[in-house]
Write a structure and sequence with these properties.
By secondary structure, this protein is α+β, with helices and mostly antiparallel strands. It has a domain of 142 residues: Trna Endonuclease, Chain: A, domain 1 (3-Layer(aba) Sandwich), CATH 3.40.1350. The protein has 16 helices and 20 strands. A six-stranded mixed sheet has the order 13-14-15-16-19-20, with helices on both faces. β14 and β15 form a beta hairpin. It starts with a helix and ends with a strand.
C-alpha cells in the first residue's frame, strides 16, 4: 500500500476521533465541538485584551461585551462546511464511496459524524484496520508504527488529521501571565484525548523527538491532577475523569497544520499574538521538573479499574510523573531515576530513599488535614414543594418502576439496574460509579436522559419524560442522545396524550424516530396508575 498524503491525513483523523465497524466495513469519524469558537477578546472601548472566562472584564472599563477581530464561529456550521469542502474530497481520493454525514447534539455542544463504507474496497479497509490492530476505537488507538517511518512531509499530514478531529485552538486555554517572564498571558492550542492513556505520551514523543515541536504540558485527567485536594470526591463520593489535554504554545505550531479554515484563522491570531510579545523560551517540558514542594493528597480514585496497569494504584504529585510511567522518551536519559521521580531533581543523593518517601507522605497528609480544616461547612436548606403542581421530577420514580418491570419481563434471567439521571449526566451518575463495566460504558456520555436502564451492566435503555404535549424538538433531542449512545430501547413518554398532529407527522415520516437501525417509541404515562401506554406508530 502506497502511503499518500491523503491516506496519512486519514490515518490522523482516525487516530484523533475514529472508530471501526469491522463487520460492516465502515469507518466512522467524529468531529466534536462546543459553543461558538472565539478569538482573542478585546475591550471595545480601549482595545485592551479582556480577562476572565465567562464574564469578560477590562481593567479600565470593567465588564463589557468583548469585541473580536477573529470569530466567533458557529462550530457546527463551520465544521460541516469544512467536511464538505476538505475532508470528503480527500476521502474520495481513497475510496469511491460517498461518505455520509450526520449530526448529534450533546450537553456541551455537538458532534458531526462522517461514515465511510469500504465494502467494495476491502483491501484498503483491512490495511487501515491492521495499522491500529487490535483496537477499533479512538479510546484505545495508538500511533501506528508506520507513521514513525514516514518522511517529515507525510508526518505533517498525519498531525493535520489529528488536529482537525482532536485539536482545538482556543484563547481561553492560555498559560497565565504569572508563568511567563514577560508577565503576559501566553496563547496555547491543545489536543484533547478522551479516555486514552497511551496516546498523549506517544503523540508527545512524536512531536518532540521526531518533528522538533516543543510541548508545554499535558493536563492529565487523573484524580491526583484534577482533584489534588480531594474536594470533588469528598462532595460527590465518586471519581470524575476528564479528558487529557496536550498543550502547545501557539507560536510553536504552524497554523497551516489546520486544514479547517476557521480553526486555522483562530490559531493564526494566537500565533501572531505570541510572536508580537516575543516570549522567551520557557523551561522545556523535560522531566524531571521541580515539584517545588507541591503535593497531591491521597485519592481513592488512584485504584480505579479504568486505569492501565502502568499507573493503577500509583500516586502522582505532578503531571510528568504520569508521563514517565506512560513511556516518555525523555525519561530514558535520567541518571538517578528513583530520587528524580520523587523530588523532580536528577542529582546524586546519598540519603535514604525511604526517608524521602516518608517526608512526602507526611506532606500529603498534612495538606489534606489543612484542606479539611479550611473547607466551609455546607448548610442544607429545605425547599418546600407545592403539592398542587405536577413537575417533571414527579414522573421519574413511576417511569423508573415501569422500566424496571419492563426490562425484567423481557430479560427474565438477567440483572437489571435502573436509575434516574435527569439533573446530572450519564458519565457523572453517582449511583453507578461502583460498577466498572457500566462506568466504562458511559464514561464519555455527556447527555441527560431522564431515566436509564442497564441489562447485565451493558445494554442501555433511555426514557425522556415530558409533562407537556410532545413536539418534534423533543423527538430530535432523544434522537441525538440515541445517535451518541446507541441504546437498545428508547422511549419518549409524556403525561399528556400524543396530539393528532404529531402522530400524523410521525406516521407519515417514521424515519424521524429512527437511529442506528432502531426506533424510538412514543408513550403516555398515567400518573394515577403508573402505567405506560405505547403508541403504535
Amino acid at each position: 500500500m502506497v502511503l499518500t498524503p491523503e491516506l496519512a491525513y486519514f490515518l490522523g483523523l482516525i487516530t484523533g476521533r475514529g472508530s471501526f465497524e469491522v463487520s460492516k466495513k465502515i469507518i466512522v469519524l467524529e468531529f466534536p465541538y462546543a459553543k461558538p469558537l472565539e478569538g482573542i477578546p478585546y475591550c471595545p472601548s480601549c482595545n485592551e485584551i479582556m480577562k476572565g472566562f465567562t464574564d469578560k472584564k477590562c481593567t479600565n472599563h470593567g465588564k463589557q461585551k468583548p469585541a473580536f477581530r477573529v470569530g466567533p464561529f458557529d462550530q457546527q456550521f463551520e465544521t460541516e462546511s469544512a467536511i464538505k469542502k476538505i475532508v470528503i474530497p480527500i476521502l474520495q481520493k481513497i475510496t469511491h464511496n460517498i461518505p455520509l454525514m450526520s449530526h448529534a447534539t450533546t450537553t456541551h455542544g455537538g458532534k458531526t459524524f462522517v461514515s465511510i463504507e469500504f465494502k467494495e474496497e476491502q483491501n484498503i479497509f483491512d490495511w487501515i484496520v491492521e495499522q491500529f490492530d487490535p483496537y477499533t476505537n479512538y479510546n484505545s488507538f495508538e500511533i501506528p508504527q508506520i507513521v514513525h517511518d514516514l518522511k517529515l512531509d507525510l508526518k505533517k499530514e498525519y498531525v493535520s488529521g489529528i488536529m482537525d478531529t482532536a485539536g482545538f485552538p482556543k484563547w481561553a486555554n492560555f498559560s497565565p501571565a504569572m508563568f511567563s517572564k514577560e508577565k503576559k498571558d501566553r496563547a496555547r492550542m491543545y489536543f484533547q484525548f478522551v479516555r486514552n492513556w497511551k496516546l498523549p505520551v506517544q503523540f508527545c514523543n512524536l512531536l518532540e523527538t521526531e518533528m522538533d515541536i516543543p510541548i508545554d504540558t499535558i493536563r492529565w485527567g487523573h484524580p491526583n491532577i484534577d482533584d489534588s485536594s480531594r474536594k470533588s470526591y469528598d462532595e460527590t463520593g465518586y471519581t470524575m475523569f476528564r479528558e487529557h489535554q496536550l498543550k502547545i504554545f501557539a507560536e510553536n505550531l504552524d497554523p497551516i497544520f489546520h486544514k479547517f479554515e476557521y480553526k486555522r484563522k483562530i490559531l493564526q491570531e494566537l500565533y501572531n499574538y505570541n510572536n508580537s510579545i516575543g516570549f522567551q523560551v520557557n523551561e522545556p517540558c523535560t522531566p524531571p521538573r521541580s515539584v517545588r514542594g507541591r503535593v497531591a493528597v491521597y485519592h481513592p480514585g488512584e485504584n480505579d479499574p479504568r486505569f492501565p496497569s502502568q499507573i493503577k494504584g500509583e500516586h502522582f504529585d505532578t503531571f510528568w510523573q504520569i508521563c514517565w510511567k506512560m513511556g516518555c522518551n525523555l525519561c530514558n536519559q535520567i541518571t538517578n531515576p528513583e530520587y528524580a521521580y520523587l523530588k523532580g531533581k536528577d542529582e546524586k543523593f546519598s540519603g535514604n530513599i525511604a526517608d524521602v518517601k516518608k517526608e512526602l507522605d507526611k506532606k500529603r497528609n498534612e495538606k489534606y488535614a489543612n484542606t479539611l480544616k479550611n473547607r466551609p461547612q455546607k448548610i442544607k436548606k429545605t425547599v418546600k414543594k407545592s403539592s398542587k403542581t405536577l413537575t417533571e421530577d414527579d414522573t421519574y420514580v413511576p417511569l423508573q418502576k415501569w422500566l424496571d418491570g419492563f426490562l425484567s419481563r423481557v430479560n427474565p434471567s438477567k440483572q437489571i439496574i435502573s436509575e434516574i439521571v435527569a439533573t446530572t449526566t450519564l458519565s457523572k451518575l453517582t449511583e453507578i460509579q461502583h460498577i466498572p463495566k457500566i462506568v466504562e460504558l458511559v464514561q464519555d456520555l455527556e447527555i441527560r436522559p431522564d431515566v436509564v436502564g442497564f441489562v447485565d451492566d451493558a445494554e442501555m435503555t433511555f426514557i425522556e419524560s415530558k409533562i407537556t404535549a410532545m413536539n418534534l424538538a423533543n423527538v430530535g433531542q432523544l434522537v441525538g442522545y440515541c445517535l451518541i449512545a446507541d441504546p437498545e430501547y428508547a422511549y419518549l413518554i409524556s403525561t399528556k396524550q400524543v396530539s393528532a398532529g404529531l402522530k400524523k407527522i410521525l406516521t407519515s415520516y417514521p424515519e424521524l424516530l429512527s437511529y442506528n437501525g432502531k426506533k424510538i417509541q412514543i408513550g403516555f404515562l398515567d400518573m394515577t396508575t403508573g402505567n405506560v401506554k405505547l403508541e403504535k406508530i
